[in-house]
Design brief:
The chain is an alpha+beta fold. The chain is built from nine helices and 13 strands. The structure holds zinc ion. Zinc ion (ZN) binds next to loops.
Length: 287
């Protein structure tokens, strides 16, 4: 190892704003300055500022919790391009239905069996004409399973009626990817209203451990997991559906409050087990 490489390895990270030394923690790819609370991401040999917003919440009067109890957890928030989504789904379903119709047609197989003279005679005797030879019979089981049209229409209607659909991907450290996906699914499914302002980094926070590109890969799974089963299990649709976003994903801190063994999400109004975040809080909680 050259001396230069060696000296780079032990180089200290300093806040570009106030010069304070930045703490390096675990898997974190982002560093929060303990002095001025700004976030920095390592980018090559430089540090670049990380934009983080924070959800604005209405406090109840009297508040159900002390503001100091709130843990601000970062999520990547990606807004789905809804008009495009609706038109993509419609196009794919149209082509799947056409394929299904062609398949049904191809499975109408000619009946080549020789007419049985005795059956013919019997049918004629009771006044039924025998079917013309080469007539078509439908072979069952040859169809593609598609979501029922009514269900699909209802889904698209409810999805598009509020105008904005956001997918939430937890950016904080979690015990595993499944936990990340489950929390993301819960938040996305609730479709919470979201008002944000730039975060000042105050209070108990967690630094993000995943980047925007990784978050977008996970966002696809989170988004599909909120689909009705008939759609999510339709491989012809899911495999072809490209999820497009209305803008770059944003990093937003959402407020959570611990209650014993559970943690309540103040945005979305659901509870998750506290152990889901155990490792994270120890690692990143700060005044
Ligand atoms: Zn600083």
């Amino acid at each position: 190892m050259s001396r230069r490489t060696g000296s780079l390895a032990v180089q200290r990270l300093q806040c570009r704003h106030c010069g304070a030394e930045l703490p390096v923690m675990g898997r974190s790819i982002v560093f929060r300055c303990a002095t001025c609370r700004r976030l920095w991401a390592a980018s090559g040999e430089r540090l670049r500022p990380v934009r983080v917003d924070r959800a604005v919440i209405e406090l109840t009067d009297p508040p159900d919790y002390a503001p100091g109890d709130i843990i601000h957890l970062p999520f990547w928030v990606a807004e789905i391009d809804l008009p495009r989504f609706e038109s993509d789904v419609s196009k794919i379903m149209k082509s799947l239905r056409a394929a299904q119709a062609r398949l049904a047609e191809a499975s109408l197989t000619p009946d080549d069996r020789e007419p049985d003279p005795l059956t013919e005679l019997g049918l004629n005797l009771i006044g039924i004409e025998s079917p013309p030879s080469g007539s078509q019979r439908i072979v069952p089981g040859a169809a593609i399973a598609l979501p029922p049209s009514a269900e699909l229409d209802f889904f698209l209607r409810t999805m598009t009626e509020t105008g904005i659909l956001r997918v939430f991907v937890p950016a904080f450290d979690s015990p595993g990817e499944q936990v990340r996906l489950s929390i993301g699914r819960l938040m996305t499914h609730r479709r919470p209203e979201l008002r944000t302002e730039p975060s000042d980094g105050a209070g108990r926070t967690a630094v993000p451990v995943i980047q925007a590109a990784e978050a977008l890969v996970l966002a696809r799974y989170v988004f599909f997991s909120t689909f009705p089963a008939s759609m999510d299990s339709c491989a012809g649709l899911i495999d072809r559906l490209e999820v497009r976003y209305a803008a770059e994903p944003l990093l937003v801190e959402l407020p959570f409050v611990p209650h014993g063994a559970e943690i309540e999400s103040l945005v979305g109004g659901f509870h998750i087990p506290a152990r889901t975040l155990g490792a994270l809080i120890e690692e990143t909680a700060s005044g």
